[in-house]
Amino acid sequence: MTPSAADLLASESLLFAVEGVVLGIWYPEIEAATDIPVPDHLPDAGPQRAVVGRALKLKSVPLCVVSYLIVAVYGPNSVQVVIDAVRSFWRHRWSAFADYDAVQTSLVLVTVLATALAVYLTSLALDLRKTKKKLQG
Q: What is the pTM (predicted TM-score) of this model?
């Protein structure tokens, strides 16, 4: 059974929303760990290393994994929607818009936003990794 575009959109949007809520809860801790000051005497940086390590391993990396899983699950359907739209436009030119489907367009848009979030979360994880390396010396 092939799911409809509406079912795909509903399930992807739900996962995206849950991820957004979790990010909203965890973001202050991730951001604070990214901005943690590096002490002059690195052997004294144990507590800072622990904070950054926890933010990286327990918050930032799991959010990245979830983001990329969402993109991996829904990306192929979104790519197929784009391919079908381009083919339809190529064959029928402007009359292809008579078959416009806002649900399929929304599916693609949510997947694009999920991809953008995954990239942003990756940059946060990389920033945390840089901070962790600075604290290790």
A: 0.87
